[in-house]
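Good morning C.,

I know you're traveling, so I'll keep this short. The sequence:
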Amino acid sequence: MAKQKQTKHIGRVFIKNGWIKTMAGKEFSGCILIEGTKIAALAEELEIPLEAEVIDASGCLVLPGFIDAHCHVGIGEEIYRLEGDDLNETSDPLTPELRVIDGINPEDEGFRDARLGGVTAVFSVPGSGNVIGGTGVVLKTAGKVVDKMVLRNPAGLKVAFGENPKFVYGEQKKMPITRMAVASLLRQALVNALTYQEKLALGKNDPDKKPERDLGLDNLNLVLKGKIPLRAHAHRADDIMTAIRIAREFKVDLVIEHCTEGHKIAEELSEYGYPAVVGPSLINRSKVELKDKTFKTPGILAKAGVKVAIMTDHSVTPIEKLPLCAALAVKEGMNEEEALKAITINAAEILGVTDRIGSLEIGKDADLVIWSEHPFSLTARPLKVLIDGEMIND
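The tokens, ready to paste straight into the viewer:
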């Protein structure tokens, strides 16, 4: 199990002489003052307060902690097979009532690996075996109790198109066996949720008309009310467009997950305005939907005006390789600044947590990493990792 050793909480931490890249439009050589769990000040020059733990970051780069905008840390545990595999409830293709938080083990080795790669927050989500898999959660990557690691819960409802639900239920000789059935099941679930909404409204004035509570329909209503987005697993261009078609039909927010063939329809994605969480690209072509995977996709989408984040889909790609995935996107044409945004501020915006993380700004959580050099370099190492103002020693 992943063991983490944390120092006792330091009231004040003072970082000096580092090259600070805020990801909020500023970078400079200077200082950061952390008080408790928050960033209290950052400037070229600051007075060192009394009783502060001083960290000299001379010659180093200070960045906000990285964010993996789609992974399965804690729910698809490494090493353990059946015992730690809680990715897919394959007894029913529609399971909107499931909450990924109930399956997460904070001692999964993946959390430690994340910290070793400078990843301080993640969006952990159910697998893609079901048409509707359940809700995902944004978490910090340090903590003993999952409830205390939460940044946003729920943060999205996982839905899946294409091969995965077709294969899972095709083998069981039950719907969905085709892409048409995948789409129709999702549509019907959303229609059922609209009907449930109407009955709840009638029940406010007439208790006899109030429906029995349905946890799955409650979660679908969060989507219909715009409180959380659909997080749509879609690799192929046609599946991406089906997801967009349904989102527009029901007027709901949408994030395209994987977006493997997004480069083929970059202009359309830009036109509709939905963000994309791209990856995993650091894998082989393990199924037909991945035949056209390329590290060029994030750069093509970003240049077209699509808001892009980059994912590992851990444990498909080990989560500590998130900065490497961004670096490989740069190698294939993505602007370096856009690649950094894709694992910091863009990821935070897509996840709806920019009030807390994604950039180094006064009042935000003190989640930051001091790097020996630019993290896209193969020889870069995170020298210090701070989460909520605490230095993590792994």
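Safe travels,
E.
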